[in-house]
Amino acid sequence: MQSVNLIADARYTDDKPNVLHAVKTDQLLVDGVYLKGMQAMGWHKLPDADRAFLCVQGSGELVLETTAAGNELRIPLAPGAVALAPRGVFFDVVAGRQGMVCSAISKFPVRVVEKG
User: Fold this and answer.
1) Distance of CA 109 to the CA centre of its chain
2) How far apart are the C-alpha atoms of 113 and 74, rounded to whole Å?
3) Biggest alpha carbon distance in the chain?
4) Which of 64, 27, 61 is nearest to 45 (CA)?
5) 113 vs 43, 58, 71, 90, 116, CA distance in Å?
6) What is the distance in angstroms between the CA of the first residue and the CA of the last residue of the chain?
């Protein structure tokens, strides 16, 4: 198995966040997610699995859609922070001003539903 360094192998794109499949088996998917300053992944959900986000560099937020006042729960992400997007809940990941690198971990295969 090949090793991937999420920071050294960072691959940013100007127009949208970039996702690198760092580890992919028949049961597990570990992605590197690269967001430039203020970029957002866009609202989506995983109907069949939870997705954990581990911030390794920079900062940002995991934003969950809720039925509570304001309809959003904002969870800060900074290096070392882990946050969970529960299955079936729409979420977005938004980078802070300096950008963010995080790892996204979920079971595989992954079915993604985009909002809208």
Assistant:
1) 16
2) 20
3) 46
4) 64
5) 9, 27, 19, 9, 9
6) 38
Number of domains into which the chain is organized: 1
User: Stretch 89-104: mean pLDDT, rounded?
Assistant: 97
Residue range of the domain that includes 35: 18-108
Domain-located, residue 64: yes
Model confidence at 69: pLDDT above 70: no
CB 50 within 8 A of CB 106: yes
Q: Which structure tokens are listed for 101?
A: 């690198």
Geometric angle at alpha carbon 23, from 22 and 27, rounded to 5°: 150
Structure-block tokens of residue 9: 């192998």
Q: Which amino acid does the sequence have at 18? A: N
Mean pLDDT computed over every residue of the chain: 93
Angstrom distance (rounded) from CA 107 to CA 17 = 21
